[in-house]
Amino acid sequence: MKSSKEDIQKLTLEYDSGIIPPPYSHVFHLELDWSQSFLQVKLDLHYTDRDELSEQEILDEGFTLADDYHYEGELNSIWISPIKELLSDTKWSPRQLDEGGIILYLNDESVPKTPIRQEIWQLMAQDLIQAIYETTKKEAPLQINYRLVTKEKTIDCTITVNFSNRTVILDQGGTTETLNWDYSIQLMKLIFTPDYHYEIAKEEPGTKRGAYIDCGDGLWHELGKGVVNIDPAFDAVGKIQQRFEDMLLD
Fold this sequence. Notes:
The protein has helices at about 55-60, 80-90, 120-135, 180-190, 235-250; strands at about 10-15, 25-35, 40-45, 70-75, 90-95, 100-105, 115, 140-150, 155-160, 165-170, 175-180, 195, 210-215, 220, 225-230. By secondary structure, the chain is of the alpha+beta class.
């Protein structure tokens, strides 16, 4: 008997990165179960074809030699609602995948279903895996530091993105507020859209008039100089600066 979307209480996601070369190529199996009103998860993630590379080649790409990961336990139940909402909006493709992608198993069904909107399900899976990494302390929450220097004043702020409980906190001089999750995730995507010139990055933020950003690695970049648009038709740098000015100068 097939499951209706309203009856789904278990979900398994299987992903294959397809033709992406190592050390980036990977597969994962992610089981989600909210039948007991909390979210039980099981993750098995494996990086593939790394035997084609030397250890140094893997390290040079920013990976380690032990990136495979297994976790079985709970995630914050705040994730249940967005998973169910995404399921309710999902339409299925009659075709199977050719070169990698994500498939879903609903409840205990043995026949996989292929979502038409592959990207949005892959993003959901990435968010859940990041939530697992934060829950297990494998990785710390993402922190973005920003400095705006105007003629009148200098404003510093930090945005902390907690995937473990889907909260985003803006800290401005010790005053904190919670930001909208979806808005913040779109801002994060925007922040990582431009090209960052690390060869001119600084360990300290600038003091001259301008905008400066540290994407969590302790290095500061000046927008418009150390952070530049990749696509001349899309002013990502200007949009980043405008978003922060809207938050900090209100």
